[in-house]
Amino acid sequence: MNKSFKKLSTPYIVWLYLLAILPIGVMIILSFIQSEGLSFDEAKVSMNAFELLFDSTTLVAIRNSFLYAGIATLISLVLGYFVAYQLFKSKFKNKLLILTIFILPMWSNLLLRTESLGNLMEHNNMVTDLLSRININIGIGIKGTPLAVIIGLVFTYLPFVILPVYTALEKIDYSLEEASLDLGLTESKTFFKVVFPLSLKGVITGAILVFLPALSGFAVPEILGKGNVLFIGNLIEQAFKNMNYGFGSLLSVVIIFMILIALFVVNKVDKEGEMLL
């Protein structure tokens, strides 16, 4: 029986090697090669891509990626934990429906959501047009600024915090809270000494699920930042557009390496994958 099940997994293993392992191997090789596009007639081994890693533009992109992804992660953790905790404490009978409402925007295309959000950040948009009809003139006009990028990242990835944190809260034994209150602790001290420590698995998982895509993405900073805020993802896009496959591949490998480290951390924190269910 076990052997027959192993045979069923063969197509998936082949698929994994063809679409994951092989491309990563190709990118690692391209990182050490300097060529004209994908023409390898005059290709030669070069460390030029590694030298570009320390270029001022690259360093700015890396700094922006880590800085804004970190800020967006912190904001998402605060807002996400608050929402998840309030939902956990609420008396709603169908909490799954509320969770579905939170993740509903994720079912739509990311580019459409980002473009819609960007429209609201323009001076002239649908909302300001409607308000102007009743003599209320309000214009935000933050598109193209770091603030717009941070708002976009939080808006996009906030559900990735709410879900694992809520799952972690649901798994806490309520009797522990009751025992803490019976022993004389206030509700706030019970939260910080009992509830929050027991929900740290969800917090760590949520932080990683927000930080990584925020760090490596390019759509949000490209659309909401209007090219003024450079991320690592934007550099990768530009490198491949300019047929600098060595540099683009190297940056991609760096991102993949960070993702593997994050997966290792998640595996150590949440070995059974409970926080993702």
UniProtKB/TrEMBL annotation:
GO cellular component term of the entry, any: plasma membrane
Ranges of residues in domain ABC transmembrane type-1? 62-266
- Gene3D superfamilies registered for this protein in UniProt: MetI-like
Q: Which UniProt keywords apply?
A: Cell membrane, Membrane, Transmembrane, Transmembrane helix, Transport
Q: Where does it primarily localize?
A: membrane
Q: Which GO terms describe its biological process?
A: transmembrane transport
Q: Which PROSITE patterns match?
A: ABC_TM1 (PS50928)
Its topology with respect to the membrane? Multi-pass membrane protein
Q: Tell me the Pfam families matching this sequence.
A: BPD_transp_1
Q: Where are the transmembrane segments?
A: 12-33, 66-84, 147-169, 245-266
UniProt lists the family membership as follows: Belongs to the binding-protein-dependent transport system permease family. CysTW subfamily.
Q: What is this protein called?
A: ABC-type spermidine/putrescine transport system, permease component
